[in-house]
Amino acid sequence: MPTTNSENIVSQINSNVFFKEFTFSKNDFKELDTNQKLEFADNVVWLDTLFFIYQIKEREPNSTDDLKWFENKVLKKAVKQIKSTLKYISTYPEIIIENEKGHKLDITKANKCDDPKKIIIYSPLDNFPELQRHLKFYESSEIGLIHLFHSEDYYWICKYLITPAEIEEYLNFREDLFLFDKQRSNTLPEQYFLGHFLETLEADHFNPAYIDNLKNHKPDIHQFDISSIIENFNKNIKLINHQTEYYPIIEEIAKMNRSELIEFKKRISLSIENSESEEIILPYRIYLPSTDCGFVFIPLHSSKSQHWKTALYNFTMAHKYESKAKKCIGVVIFRDKTDMEYFEFYWQFVEGEWMYDEVIEKAMTDDYPFRKTKIKKFDNRYKQNGK
User: Could you tell me the superkingdom of the organism this chain comes from (predicted)?
Assistant: First the structure.
């Protein structure tokens, strides 16, 4: 079945916000016993424990009744399709679909996600009634709340909220505010919900002044934009054995919010800058309690680049041990000897439960390998980084 213009737009938005590795838009699959083709959701975002299911409805120009179209295509057919998708992943042993990177993955593994977000995005004609546009949810007795978004509103949400972690946080907030007062929620535009979210996550009141946050919110995207790093990420993964081996690394990066990404990008930049020094530069590092993951950034002069593997392993394991993290990601950075305009990025991901190690303890005591570090805490990251 050919994709609609709305489906293509949503796929493009989701690929930019959630990364191509976690976005699936070619979603038909075959039933195992009958070989019959079945239709999965129009778009899916799956990132570790984050799972979004999208149905996208675009009104045909020759439709004659807005309300009938909304009732039949959005509130009935799209809801039924979302229910079918959830049923498929819970009953089929395997469903292989292809992400926007062209990698094929088994989407039934997303069934481990405790709180899948069900989302319908619709594109009506210009004269669509505001009463219907302001409806925030379809309430299903079988699968719970299903988010309803006019396509324009979804587009602007993804313009203001630029990481998967922030989108998930907004959807959770949106549910909380709706449950606080369903009747009033369905009289307010999406802009109010977004403005309230930018002010506070407290979903126990309404304040008309919050909508002004949209006019004042001008984030410096450059501070936390890491798209250039992500775009060719798999080319920079060394020790790679298969095409999706770098996914755990990019998953941890995708879970960051903007204040964490600022710290991440700052350390990448410092590592690039200090890799020019022939002196030994201590690595930079951060630890994120929210995901129990550490990151260590290792600048290395090109004259010592033959030692990259040892440096990467030792510092990654040392940071994981000291922070008592379950996961740790290391990256070593140095100039490319064959082309001095570019830098090499070598990455490593390690995971495992922390265990006391007498040898590492002694090594850390005898020759401590790190500098002191801390992350600035923002009371409201959206306002601190948005003005």
Answer: Bacteria
What CATH number did the domain enclosing 322 receive?
3.30.70
Range of weakest confidence among 226-230, 232-236, 243-247, 367-371: 232-236
> How far is the C-alpha of 135 from the C-alpha of 187, rounded, in Å?
8
Indicate if 195 and 253 belong to the same structural domain: no
From the centroid of its chain, how far is CA 168?
A: 8
Using a cut of 0.70, tell me whether the model's pTM lies above it.
yes
Q: Is there a domain that residue 342 lies in?
A: yes
Domain with residue 194: its CATH number is 3.40.91
With respect to residue 26, please indicate whether it lies within any of the assigned structural domains.
yes
Q: Is pLDDT at 221 greater than 90 in this prediction?
A: no
At residue 77, the pLDDT reads 95
Q: What is the mean pLDDT of residues 307-322?
A: 94
344: pLDDT confidence band, cut at 50, 70 and 90? Answer: confident
Query: What is the structure's pLDDT at 297?
Result: 96
Task: Give the model's confidence band at 387: pLDDT under 50 very low, under 70 low, under 90 confident, else very high.
Answer: very low
